[in-house]
Specification:
alpha+beta, binds glutathione
Length: 206
């Protein structure tokens, strides 16, 4: 079995991948970076992730960056965990849509709202369109529950759920009852509880 190493900092977007790894239940090594010390910009790290960002996952000899891509890769690489929707299943398309909706739409909408641009771009030029539509679409997606694809919890819930959880925590998304209920359901998952506790310990130790 190829080994897994997560290049991680807490708190950060690499916590999304830590949660995913805890959901998988596969052993992994952690390579902790201090973002405040600028270790993500050190030449040896830039050699594996030239974006100078976490997360990065090393899986055997493969280097994978971008949290959603890493989660998609892990879900497919370890199908026995039941966190993917395989090619050939009609739900694969909606699964991928939700998997990439968070980094493609929710996250940029949240950040643009928190740090408004001096000149508002036209709606058509923004990949996410506008903040309110993104929130409405997300609310409709999570409302039926328990998860985005119904009864099956998938990598899409890890990525979108972590983004919403973070957005609620920092008041970057409105406290819509659909978001609060969905994130509340995710908080019950032992893997998220484990990942959060491990990150708390890491933060306390640094
Ligand atoms: N698009 C990347 C974003 C990763 C990202 O922005 N990570 C932040 C931490 S939350 C980071 O590494 N910041 C350090 C820096 O930019 O110097 C992903 O989704 O994985």
């Amino acid at each position: 079995m190829a080994s897994l190493t997560l290049y991680h900092a807490a708190p950060s977007r690499s916590s999304i991948v830590r949660w995913m790894l805890e959901e998988l239940g596969e052993p992994y090594d952690l390579h902790v970076l201090s973002l405040t010390k600028g270790e993500q910009l050190a030449p040896d790290y830039l050699a594996i992730n030239p974006m100078g960002k976490v997360p990065t996952l090393k899986h055997g000899d493969a280097i994978i960056t971008e949290a959603a891509a890493i989660c998609a890769h892990l879900a497919d690489a370890f199908p026995q965990a039941g966190l993917n929707v395989p090619v050939g299943d009609a739900r694969r398309g909606p699964y991928l849509k939700w998997l990439f909706f968070a980094p493609g739409c929710i996250e940029p909408a949240m950040i643009d709202r928190a740090y408004p641009r001096q000149e508002q771009p036209r709606r058509g030029t923004l990949g996410y369109g506008d903040f309110d539509t993104v929130m409405d679409v997300t609310a409709k997606g999570v409302e039926p529950g328990p998860y985005l694809l119904g009864e099956q919890f998938t990598a899409a819930d890890v990525v979108l759920g972590a983004t919403l959880r973070w957005g609620l925590m920092f008041k970057l998304v409105p406290e819509r009852p659909e978001f609060v209920a969905y994130v509340g359901r995710l908080e019950q998952r032992p893997a998220l509880q484990r990942a959060s506790a491990l990150d708390q310990d890491l933060m306390a130790a640094s």
